[in-house]
Structures are given as C-alpha cells and as structure tokens.
Hints:
453 residues; 9-stranded mixed beta sheet; 6-stranded antiparallel beta sheet; 10 helices; globular
Amino acid sequence: xxxxxxxxxxxxxxxxxxxxxxxxxxxxxxxxxxxxxxxxxxxxxxxxxxxxxxxxxxxxxxxxxxxxxxxxxxxxxxxxxxxxxxxxxxxxxxxxxxxxxxxxxxxxxxxxxxxxxxxxxxxxxxxxxxxxxxxxxxxxxxxxxxxxxxxxxxxxxxxxxxxxxxxxxxxxxxxxxxxxxxxxxxxxxxxxxxxxxxxxxxxxxxxxxxxxxxxxxxxxxxxxxxxxxxxxxxxxxxxxxxxxxxxxxxxxxxxxxxxxxxxxxxxxxxxxxxxxxxxxxxxxxxxxxxxxxxxxxxxxxxxxxxxxxxxxxxxxxxxxxxxxxxxxxxxxxxxxxxxxxxxxxxxxxxxxxxxxxxxxxxxxxxxxxxxxxxxxxxxxxxxxxxxxxxxxxxxxxxxxxxxxxxxxxxxxxxxxxxxxxxxxxxxxxxxxxxxxxxxxxxxxxxxxxxxxx
Length: 453
C-alpha cells in the first residue's frame, strides 16, 4: 500500500534519580475496523468490551523485556487467529515453508498504531490508569474512525475528557496524600495515532512530540518540527482560562504553578465562607489528566484542564525522518533539534546491533542530568524512524522492530508468538508516591543503570 507507512520503532524508559517511577509508555498496533465489521465494532470495542468479530485476530499481549537484544530486524505480518497447534507448527524449525503458507493467512486490513507517553506526578495512579484505558476510550468516541480530520480530532478531545472523568470513580481507591487528603495524582499525556499516512496528535502537559524533517536531500542536518507546545500556566491563553475559572498562578522556586486552594489542614466539617483557605503553588502544568483536586465547584470545570490540543499531520517519509515522543526528562536536557540530529547521526555512525535510537537519546539525557549535578527526572522516549518504500533499508539496532502498516504486526521477531499489543516492561517498584517532590523527599541518586554503555 502506498498510503501506509513503514518505520522502525524503539522505546526507552528509566527511573533516573527519582524515588518512584511514574513514567509510562503505551504502544498498540491493531486492525482498523473495516466496512464489513464496522457495524459489529461498537458492540465489541465501542462500549469497552473485548469481543472481536470472527475474522479478527485474537488479542494477545507480549511484554518486551528491558535490555533484550535481538540479532536482526523484525519480520512481522498480521495473521488470522490460529490455534495453539498451528502456532507451534509455525515456530518449529522443522516445519516446511509449505506448511507455514498453509497455516498463515495474511490479513489485508489496514492497521492503526497508537503511541503514548504519560509522565505522572503526585503518584503513579493517573499515569497507569491512562495507559490502561485511554486507547479504548478513544476508540469508542463517535467520529474516531472517520475520514474527516476534524471529526477524528474532536473524538480525541472527547476521549481525553472521558478518561479524565473515569478517574473520579477510581479516586477512592487511590492512595491518599501524606496529610490524608484524596490523591493528587495526575499525568501528562502525549499521544499519536497513525492511520494510513496521517498522524493525529493529542497532548496535555509538558511531554512533547517532535518530528525530524529533511527539507532538501543535500541537507546534512535535520530540522526539528515541534508538534506540541508545553501547557505552562504562564502562557497567556492558559493564564486567562485559569483566572476565568477563579484559579490563580503563583511562583515557587522561580517556577510558575497553578495554585491549589484547599481548606487549612486543621479544618473540620463543611467548607463555609468563613473557612480559612490555604493557597499552595502546586502544579507546573496547566493541563493534565487527573489532578482532580483542581475541580472548581462554582464553574463545574477543572482549573487544570484535561482537554488536549489536537492536530493532524500528513507524513511523507521522503521529508519526515523521525518522530520522537518524550517526557520532560528528555526535553529538559536536550533541545528538539539536537534530539532529531542525534538520531540521524546515530543511524549513520552506529553499526548493526548497536543501541537503539531511543536508548541513545535517553541515556544521553540522563548523562546530562548527572553532569549538571542534578537529580535526574524519570526519562522516557519513543522513536519512530520512517523509511521510504523502495528506498535504502533502515539501519537496525538492538531492541528495535520494523512495523509495516500495510500489513500490521502480529508476530514478534522470533517465530511463534502472535500479538497485537507491544508494551514496555514495567518495573516492580514499592508502592507509594512523592508529594511536592524535591522539597519533601530529598533523595540521593539511586543508580544509573542505563549508563553502562
């Protein structure tokens, strides 16, 4: 298919020097519903069910072990649902090509890819909730599968808001703050959805999406196109919205923060006009998912808004070479132009089986944190390297796979394991959360495991 993309994918996530890991990556590659299955789709997916039509591949998940090395490029194709016996026969070295052809039926339906970086704060609960539920909520929204870009963008906004409101039901289950108040957990969300050659972007917070562009074949460096803008409270648009809702912004340690207006901790009983309200400069972003403490009862809206900025971009592999999603652990240390050109030079200079582009960016950012004598933030990166069909092959490194959106991916590089979801392994960490991070917990650096290279 000429109207579908081919790209190399890698991801990296590290705790840095923080006590808790609150960054989460979510990667999904699935079938688009076709005209024949669209009627059945709402019954299976639109209402949160896991059912599929008879022709759909069975949903299975594979966890990518952190640091796993592979000897070559991924070879993947969508296959119809197979029995365990069929899967074993495909994975058996003794099985002939003829047998494999008999069992594997390539599905020609389009694929859709979902990539997201969530950078949690005030606890990991909101980030994990978003990673588990946002994609399903997006797919349920009317217009999400439309060919009209404006309808798709509207569905993305509605899906973000639906995810945000769904957190209300979970709030009683989330750990309370150290002062006994309901959880203050929230998360940034930078999301891209790739359908055909179109990339839809939805974004809240200060994670970011950047595209590396080569305008002319003679250019020796790439230009960085910043697709998202950080939602900082001091931006005129955000400041006006916050103040219109009765909120305010205050500086703390030189950083503008949205103020949390809460009753004094010694207060008991209902809040009245005479109740003493403390004003705490709290959050350094103006939009996020979660942060339910920011609900304004007078306006019925959230001062910290869950509504994302959305955009759509038509990708051309001749010009657009890299797509980078990263948390602020990366962008606080590395300007976008440096990041895209690091990927570009890495692919030119690194030999086969070298570290992936995502790991190279993440480890370099962590090294910069250390050189500056700063405690590194959680650092998370996804890198997609686009390839022109018929062009030179993509350089392959360790921990990377090739995704051909014309066929999708239903089989990981080693044979015999079908899947339709690629997830980064989540480390098992002790339960808990930090509150007002650096000023409360003054942790030492807790190791730099990714700096062994």
